[in-house]
Write a structure and sequence with these properties.
Largest sheet: 8 strands, parallel, barrel
Helix content: 25-40%
Distance between the termini: 75 Å
Strand order of the largest sheet: 1-2-3-4-5-6-7-8
Number of helices: 22
Number of strands: 18
Strand content: 15-25%
Shape: globular
Structural class: alpha/beta
Length: 580
């Protein structure tokens, strides 16, 4: 057994609650325990990045930058770690180099010390800007490899990748096993071979979803892994991570003894046990072991976040179908590792395939992934899918960010009347669909209910159903909405919907309704009343499941009425506009 002290990174403040509670933990529940966590002596505490930035502004009405500052005051002695998606930062597209550099500068100023930087496709061209900027700020740059298994991934692939990361100048290297796919024997072999190849310390991140993690961790420790990610026990296991206390106890008295105080960790665990109860509405149903994950390869954090979009689409019962579709979708797209943003892209596409038919609807992000706008895919894209997306056009082969014009100065000028701080300009860059709403609501209590409540008595079923022609990307589908009251918002939106003509009842020559195919928000109206549109023209862009979905017109005509405005939330079957 290797004789170096095992160091621990605690995940309770980021990936622990992202994996189990859909990233909903509020800063107010972190602050009371922060000073006690500062006494533990962790190598680092991961508390930012990943989905936390998005969740703060989209759901919690919290300032994510202020979260760092508030916690830092309580934890001055503990290095803060964030998860950074390379050229994607904490968003879902590639950003220009000047924006990446500005984000890193602001994150360093706020209090982030360790940047775990990865690319979903393991395309290291997408890491070079952020790694260089972190180093320029004098902070710790950790290069992470997105671990996965597929016909195009092997142990040697990751050993060579680690060597290339070291050549980039990273301070440490992380094996990022986001779905719990790393088995014990391969883990021992991989750690041993990487340790023989590179000199910088090696870090392991894995999830307990598949039930392999504790065995895998022990093999990695025996092979000499230097740092280990764990989560305090009350936020561990299931789709989360190995319990911190268990690892500390297992290593006690051995050459790899962590030196951490088990009694102090138990106190921290008791605190988070109470906190977890405050988020029962979001607590994942995946609390045990699911070996099917070895097939679907769904990351821990993604499972809890799949529940919400499927509930929005009234299709939670179809989750098993989505989990079966995911590996098929992943193969078609060239075997990308399933980690943000590719996990969201492939996961959302799997949902669309199940609900609407395979590739009958493609999100904007799915198209970009296949086109090469996220980087070099590990494998070969399905020829039919490639033809659907690219036609006769050539795919992108250069570093995607090389195609992007500088955007920081332009964006700051565009939003100068809305964003007075550089940190808020970043919010507009990363999440333009929700930035304005966030700034108006920031600091107010969130709209969501965090605790489960007793179910209300079911309303009597309605005999009548409402039929609509749902049109997406030029294709028309027949949809029946059995509960009109549940589908249509109250107030002005319902009045507008009820006054709109039903497509089935409209006389010949009059307009036909285009209805929402998915639950989501109206992000952009691309045409106005009175404008002529041709068949296939995009008339509305919906933001559904964090992705952009085009709604196209099924036939040529003139837009007679628009029943929604930008920012409105819609349910499946809600009237969007009338074209005749």
């Amino acid at each position: 057994m290797a004789g170096n002290k095992l160091r621990i990174t605690e995940l309770a403040l980021r990936d622990g609650h992202q994996s189990l509670l859909a990233t909903r933990m509020k800063t107010e529940h972190m602050l009371p325990i922060a000073a006690k966590m500062d006494k533990v002596g962790y190598w680092s505490v991961e508390m930012w990045g990943g989905a936390t930035f998005d969740s703060c502004i989209r759901f919690l009405n919290e300032d994510p930058w202020e979260r760092v500052r508030l916690l830092k005051r309580q934890m001055p002695n503990t290095p803060f770690q964030m998860l950074l998606r390379g050229q994607n930062l904490v968003g879902y597209r590639h950003y220009a180099d000047d924006l990446v550099e500005k984000f890193v500068d602001l994150a360093c100023a706020a209090g982030i010390d360790v940047f775990r930087i990865f690319d979903a496709l393991n395309d290291l061209r997408n890491l070079k800007t952020s790694v260089a900027r972190v180093k320029k700020n004098g902070k710790h740059a950790q290069g992470a490899m997105s671990y996965t298994t597929s016909p195009v991934h092997s142990t040697q692939f990751f050993v060579e990748l680690a060597s290339r990361l070291e050549d980039m100048g990273v301070d440490t290297i992380c094996i990022k096993d986001m779905a719990g796919l790393l088995a014990p024997e391969p883990a021992g072999e991989l750690v041993s071979k990487i340790k023989a190849k590179v000199k910088v310390p090696l870090h392991l991140h894995t999830h307990t979803t598949s039930g392999l993690a504790l065995m895998t961790v022990m093999k990695a420790i025996d092979a000499g892994v230097d740092i280990l990610d764990t989560a305090i026990s009350s936020l561990s296991m299931g789709t989360s991570h190995s319990p911190t206390e268990t690892i500390v106890a297992a290593m006690k008295g051995t050459p790899r003894d962590t030196g951490l105080d088990l009694d102090l960790l138990v106190e921290i665990s008791e605190y988070f046990k109470g906190v977890r109860g405050e988020y029962s509405a979001f607590d994942t149903a995946f609390l045990g072991v699911d070996v099917n994950i070895l097939k679907s390869q769904v990351p821990g954090g993604m499972i809890s976040n799949l529940d919400s979009p499927l509930k929005q689409q009234n299709a939670l019962h179809r989750l098993p179908e989505v989990l079966e579709e995911l590996p098929r979708c992943r193969k078609d797209m060239g075997y990308p590792p399933l980690v943000t943003p590719t996990s969201q892209i492939v996961g959302t596409q799997a949902v669309l395939n199940v609900l609407m038919g395979r590739y009958k609807v493609l999100s904007k992000e799915s198209r970009a992934l296949v086109e090469g706008n996220y980087g070099r895919l590990p494998g070969t894209v399905d020829p039919e899918l490639l033809k659907t997306v690219c036609g006769d056009k050539a795919c992108v082969t250069v570093r995607p960010a090389d195609l992007l014009a500088p955007e920081w100065d332009r964006l700051r000028e565009e939003v100068k009347d809305k964003a007075t701080r550089d940190e808020d300009v970043i919010v507009f860059a990363l999440f333009p669909q929700v930035a304005e709403t966030y700034l108006k609501k920031r600091g107010t209590p969130p709209d969501e209910k965090f605790k489960k409540e007793a179910a209300a008595p079911a309303a009597p079923a309605k005999a009548a159903a409402n039929a609509f022609h749902v049109t997406v990307n030029g294709k028309t589908y027949d949809v029946r909405v059995d509960d009109w009251d549940a589908a249509v918002p109250s107030g002005a939106a319902r009045a507008a919907a009820s006054s709109a003509p039903s497509p089935d009842a409209a006389p010949p020559g009059e307009g036909r309704m285009v209805a929402a195919p998915l639950a989501g928000a109206v992000w952009k109206l691309t045409r106005g009343v009175g404008e002529h549109v041709d068949e296939g023209d995009v008339v509305i862009i919906l933001e559904a499941m964090k992705m952009e979905t085009d709604v196209a017109c099924p036939h040529s005509g003139v837009i007679q009425a628009i029943h929604v405005k930008e920012g409105d939330r819609v349910n499946p079957g809600d009237p969007l506009l009338t074209v005749g």
